[in-house]
What does this fold into?
Amino acid sequence: MGKKAKPSKTQVGPDARVTGDAVLRGEAQVLDHGRVSGRSQVGEQACVKDEARVAGQAEVREQAVISGNAWVYENALVKGTAHITDNACIFGDAVVSGATTIGGAANVGPRARVKQSDHVVVYAPAAISVKRVDPRTHDGPAVWTAYRTRKDGVRVMLGRRPKKVSEAPKELLKLITWTKV
It folds into this structure.
């Protein structure tokens, strides 16, 4: 006699959408106007809410929360009790874990290994206005972001475009605490 399948405790709100080959597991929730699409996965007790999006082959698990207008896409992984909010974008092969909070207009991309909130620093020299756009096709506002990579390295982006550390504003580099630049 085979094992009985456990009933799913996943929850999808009336205005939320799960499309494509996306998978929800465990007690995952997609609420408000949240969207999960492509071949992405949301599992365990993770939550996607507000206007947040998870797309591509991205994965959100454990107790992670994606909210606001945040995007997690491509092959990114968000886990632990991480909270991605506001207009933040996590993409590429980025891994965000632990009790990390990433918000504002931060862009965390390829090779990122973010384990705590101060592993991401953002510098915008002037007030910015952020329009709701698809970050997969739009570069985003001219905001500088520096983030931790494997082995405590540093990667710098302007919008969602990688830049050399030498091109970054000195004000941004002064905010980096996990290594010397």
Q: What stands out?
A: The chain has a mean pLDDT of 90. Residues 170-174 form the longest helix (5 residues).
